[in-house]
Design brief:
428 residues; Aspartate Aminotransferase, domain 1; three-stranded antiparallel beta sheet; 2 domains; alpha/beta; Aspartate Aminotransferase, domain 2; seven-stranded mixed beta sheet; 14 strands; globular; 13% strand
């Protein structure tokens, strides 16, 4: 029997794939990119001890800037190169599997894979949620946000206020956003959305997502959380958190190239409408038509199609994630889970505890709350950019901008890196 190409591909995608240690961490998803069968994943090996410098051999000097752009482990870089080779037609290249990537991210944050869509960027995910909720400046809808939310989101909502959106901003007090002020700002029956960052990209302040969700839901508001500075560096349970939606890009703590994940809770999707339409939201590439020659007559001109389940059906846009980004995630997500977010957090905590103790002694006032378990320590420094040249000369990389210095260690850092930074910083 001779199979058509479509039948052959369908059969090939059902063949069992034999995975090794990495595959045991990875749920197999149907199909691959552009209809090609996905490549079996390479072995991951035992979880490395921390600090793990072996997996990041390309780092030069002292990098304490993972909150800006995280270096990629060598395993991710290898799959990225092989994915690019596959795009060029090399048979030995790597073909990633989008469904497998979504399933791994869902496992990392304790969500259902149908609650995960892949979108171009974190803030685009937030914009999709706002649109899906029908929030409109023209209707003078009310939302609540705070001064430690991502600055791009602050710009978005500020622009929308100029067209009529009503935004209540919660101010920073003692380097924190007080829950009681958040509670007072939410108006029962009127506030549609509370939009926050789980972990502040500037200071590392962390919201208690369950507490925020309980406050908001009691008054009928929904919650969106930017989790870009949390996913991958600490335990994160989106199901238990109660948030209705969350998003994060992959070039930071998820250790790959640029794409993003959007999480939307199943029950929350019932209160949303698709913010736009694209044929990639349907399970079949082509519907049955009823307007061309030899088509059967029917009441509608197209039928026999269904919408994908969950977030992919609600938010598919035709955006195809960069092959390199998906390939990098095929390694980095299992790498993170192999070590364990709790161990990653504990390792960074030892380094940030030292920084929180030493920096104030040297005249640098902390902006990061002592209780924060984020891998971020930020200090106030007027005209912080003036320190950039000296730090670069010492081979130390951190973020210096506005009037603060942000230090963000990761899995490859150790106390020697902290010592080099402290030695390079002038006493104030």
């Amino acid at each position: 029997m001779k199979l058509t190409r479509k039948e052959w591909l369908k059969a090939a995608c059902t063949l069992p794939l034999q995975f090794t240690a990495l595959a045991q961490l990875t749920a197999q998803g149907p199909g691959g990119n552009r209809g090609a069968a996905p490549t079996p994943l390479p072995p991951l090996g035992p979880a490395p001890a921390l600090p793990d410098k072996t997996s990041f051999p390309r780092i030069t000097g002292t990098s304490l800037d993972a909150a800006a752009t995280h270096p990629r482990p060598e395993g991710s870089l290898d799959l990225i190169r092989k994915a690019q080779a596959s795009q060029l037609g090399e048979p030995s290249g790597f073909r990633s599997n989008e469904a497998r990537v979504r399933e791994n991210f869902a496992r990392l944050v304790n969500a259902d894979p149908t609650e995960i869509a892949i979108v171009p960027a974190t803030q685009i995910g937030e914009s999709y949620v706002v649109a899906a909720l029908g929030i409109s400046p023209e209707n003078h809808d009310h939302i609540v946000s705070d001064h430690l939310h991502f600055v791009g989101s602050l710009q978005m909502y500020t622009d929308m206020t100029r067209r009529g959106l009503d935004v209540t901003w919660i101010e920073i007090k003692d380097n924190r956003i007080p829950d009681d002020e958040l509670d007072r700002a939410i108006v029962k029956g009127r506030t549609k959305l509370v939009a926050i960052s789980h972990t502040s990209f500037v200071t590392g302040f962390q919201h208690d997502l369950k507490r925020v969700s309980d406050i908001a839901h009691a008054k009928g508001a929904m919650v969106y959380a930017d989790i870009i500075q949390a996913a991958g560096n600490q335990p994160l349970d989106l199901t238990a958190s109660g948030v209705d939606a969350a998003a994060c890009a992959t070039y930071k703590w998820l250790m790959s190239a640029g794409t993003a994940f959007l999480y939307v809770r199943k029950s929350s999707m019932q209160k949303m409408r698709p913010p736009f339409y694209h044929f990639t939201r349907y399970t079949t590439l082509l519907p049955t038509t009823h307007m061309y020659p030899f088509d059967a007559p029917a009441r509608e001109i197209v039928d026999n199609y269904t919408v994908k389940e969950g977030a992919p059906g609600m938010f598919s846009t035709g955006y195809e994630p960069d092959t390199a980004a998906l390939a990098g995630l095929e390694y980095s997500l299992p790498y993170i889970m192999n070590i364990g977010p709790a161990k990653i957090q504990a390792h960074a905590q030892a380094l940030t505890d030292r920084l929180k103790a030493e920096l104030p002694r040297r005249g640098y006032p902390l902006l990061t709350p002592q209780e924060s378990r984020a891998p971020i320590v930020t200090v106030a420094v007027e005209n912080a950019q003036r320190l950039g040249a000296d730090l670069r000369a010492a081979g130390v990389r951190v973020t210096t901008r506005w009037n603060h210095v942000r230090i963000s260690p990761s899995v490859f850092n150790d106390m020697h890196d902290v010592d080099r930074l402290l030695a390079a910083l002038p006493k104030i």
